[in-house]
Amino acid sequence: MSAHAPSAGRVPAPAQYAEIAVPGAAIGLVAGVFAAGVAALAGLPGVQIATIATGLGIPLALLGAGYCVLLATGRFGVGAVGPVALYWLVGFPLARLIDEVAVAGVLGHDDVLRDPLLSFLAFQALLSIGFAIGFLWLHERLAPHWYHRIQRHNTAAADLMRRYIGQAAAMEERRAAAGRGRRRGGS
Amino acid sequence: MDSSDINSDRPLGRDDLTGTETPPARVPAQRGPVPAESGAAAGGGPGGAGETPAPEQERFWKAGRLEPMPIRPLPKAPPSIHLLGPTVFLVALGVGMGESYMWPRLVLIFGPEIRWLFLIGVTLQAVVMLEMSRYAMATGESIFFGAARVFKPLMWFFFVTAILVYIWPGHLSAGASAFERVTGIPWQATAVTGMLLVGVVFTLAKVVYNLLENVLSICIGLLVVGTSVVAAMVGSLSDLSTTLTGMFAFGYLPDEALSPAWFPVIVGSIAFAGPSGMQQMWYTLHLRDKGAGMGSHIPRIRGLRHAEEQETMPSRGFMFDTSDPAEMSKWKGWRRWVTFDAFVLFWGITMLVTVSFTVLAQASARFDPQVATVIRDGERDAALDAMAASFTAAGSPVFGTIFFLFISLIGLNATLGLFDSFSRGQADMTYFFVPGARRFSMSKLYGFFLWGLIAFGIVILLFGPADGPAAILDTLAFLSTFAMGAYCVTLLLVNNLTLPKPIRPGILPNVLIACAAVFYLGMLFYSLFAYGVVVS
């Protein structure tokens, strides 16, 4: 994990973090709306569609936003797969559980889950790896454009952009150093 | 041949920078204008305006009888922790009917244990991908050019095969049909509109590669996130665990799988595990356009509207100085970069999507045990309907809709990727090997093949069978699988005969590629001679 927290004199306002959270929140929301859209095309009742959209979309959006904030505060490394996978290992089953509870509650079902809770959570946790990869794939594709766009008025975004650039430069330097070390060792 | 074949042992010239003199690193996506060629000294390149002064004495790498490759510096590799590369095209092309339909169908009929064959198929494809990239990144040339360096008719075989197999808009019609089932919009209208849209967008794009990478990346991201969410909603832990453990049931082949009805289907499914036909060969063109390795010395293809801005294409690729340890260090960086792509992105995402689809299929079978019987007898379209119907019967209308929506998305991905790849590959071979073709720019040739494909596709969609006349369907299926065996043999020849020794493949990759050739060709001919049926 990186230690690139914003410097003390330029602590961003909550609004700045909210702006930074947009890409992650959007991806989470799209995932939830995707499920609701499929349900709508399938002709499910409106109340069920709305419940899926909110019950799944909002938790995923909040968790997606949380990822961006943790990234901006330096708790996650830029583009690092491991921490994101761990994050969604907990977050994805939680979001799905909220979704199932919401749907059962709205539709008045007695049984909230088809499977025992532990089996349900284990299954969701395993599939969370796929979700994490897809999330990161989309985030890395979209977020840098957004941060580049807002960095002029958002110091936290500017700091994040510097980290994106700095990470690439640092990796190049490490690689060059490793290459020099290998050559010395080999001679 | 080895590094000593480079035709001069003078100190490296101005253009032949070594590690300490390497220009500032650029990741491929950020690369600037293409370095101009030193065509005069190279003896035959068309050259272009704004060339840098040529070194007094050019150094070359001789490979085959074609024009030697001038020695140029290898750019530094980007960090291997990245998420997007040319693999996006292979994933887009690879995650198709095989992953979404053929393998889930086999699982429903033979059980999840049959997936060990899928594991082998995708893993072999990842190795093929790595070996394809070896030649493309070392030279900036496509594998077609490499084949021509070994034996020109070999390249013409692929040129003709590409036309025979890929001009039929079958992929698009499958996706459009699925879309019709969800929305009610006639599939011909969707397919024709889709083709025209693809043509217009690619024509207007300044740099085709950048546009396509962006669009496909978003599509694949949505596909991965979407399949994960949907599988999480309808599957269960037991579906997932049997799907995963089935991948390691090596050797499982029930008697029915060896029947004339199913063995050709299994061969076809293995061939369609990941990218099939010539898609791996086209990947080398995307590597070049991405600027991977020595591809950074080659201009990128521009859309037809910007064809006049197209830089002059060199008449051949380039080679780096493999006797220079600094250059070899950079080469290892590129190999790490592409290995990450092959195993984390290509292998991982292909596996992920097919696992999700198999979980969906298992969920439907759990609710409706008759699904296998329904699917067993159907033709493709009938079986697609049966699968969707079984999904619907299994839970709710959501299941069937999901299935068709994903097929639509996959059809769109495949169409974008295939249209671009076909045009790119044919333009590449035409530009370099058809006499007189160089008076057109690569962009114009690309546009010619793209719009030719679209025009033919529209005519066929409106007036003919989308997959091609029934009489030649078997031939096309045979050619598609045969091309895969043939490109493995081509790879072995190209990598071992035309590359300098220090960067040739080791014994393990060679053995694996040879095994892949035997695997594809062996099963194809076994199917043909033992059952009298080609793959289906």
TrEMBL record, chain A:
The chain crosses the membrane at residues 20-43, 49-70, 77-98, 118-138. Keywords: Membrane, Transmembrane, Transmembrane helix. The keyword Transmembrane applies. This is Uncharacterized protein. It comes from Streptomonospora nanhaiensis.
UniProtKB/TrEMBL annotation, chain B:
Residues 7-17 have a biased composition (Basic and acidic residues). The chain crosses the membrane at residues 81-102, 114-132, 153-169, 189-208, 215-237, 257-278, 338-361, 398-419, 445-464, 476-499, 511-534. Residues 41-50 have a biased composition (Gly residues). It comes from the Bacteria. It comes from Streptomonospora nanhaiensis. Residues 1-55 are annotated as: Disordered. This is Divalent metal cation transporter. Keywords: Membrane, Transmembrane, Transmembrane helix.
